[in-house]
């Protein structure tokens, strides 16, 4: 099993590096990442702060989109708006490539009961309340679909909870075609907590 995990991670890193190289220049982004981004997102994109997202291994297209939307005002966050103000489009592409090439750290769920509830909801949704299965867009293992839907696997549960609640309240509205706002609208606080706990333990 250990050998399988190691082989899988080597394959992931190889693919991530290839994708990143096609998108931008990670080497050019490293000084920016160290000077501007590391305090909140970690030098390698594995955030030490639960309320700030880990960026390591995220799809570069998604990262680039978010940076652009912070810069344009399409996504509201006073801290991030200030951080991206001086970045060029090239800087943002390079940063997206840099973080996409980083290896995500492994995390473990803290509440087994929530994980069980979250797995059921993530994979099958809730037909009774009209909640769609998350796996349809974010893939069964939480890896997401490049250029369309972000990687959720291993993300801090606190951050996931905050974002789902923001989508549910309409406070975050940069989702294409209102998809996430529609998905989050019927979610209860307990369902949100269960989903967040489940995705945090995905690899």
As residue ranges, the low-confidence spans are 8-15
Q: Helicity level, as a percent range?
A: 55-70%
Largest sheet: none
Shape: globular
Task: Kindly state the number of beta strands.
Answer: 0
What kind of assembly state do the chains in view correspond to? single chain
Q: Separation of termini?
A: 14 Å
Question: What does the average pLDDT come to?
Answer: 91
Note the beta-strand portion. Answer: under 5%
Taking all Cα atoms into account, the compactness measure Rg is 17 Å
| Alpha-beta content class | mainly alpha
Q: What string, H for helix and E for strand, traces the elements in order? A: HHHHHHHHHH
Alpha plus pi helix count: 10
What would you note in describing this structure?
With 203 residues, the chain is mainly alpha-helical. The chain contains ten helices and no strands. It has helices at residues 2-23, 26-41, 60-72, 78-84, 89-100, 112-124, 135-138, 157-169, 179-184, 189-200. Helix 2 (26-41) packs across helix 5 (89-100), helix 6 packs across helix 10 (189-200) and helix 8 (157-169) runs antiparallel to helix 10 (189-200). The longest helix has 22 residues, at 2-23. The two termini are 14 Å apart. Residues 8-15 have low confidence and may be disordered.
Output the keywords.
203 residues, mainly alpha, 10 helices, 58% helix
Brief summary of the model shown:
With 203 residues, this protein is mainly α.
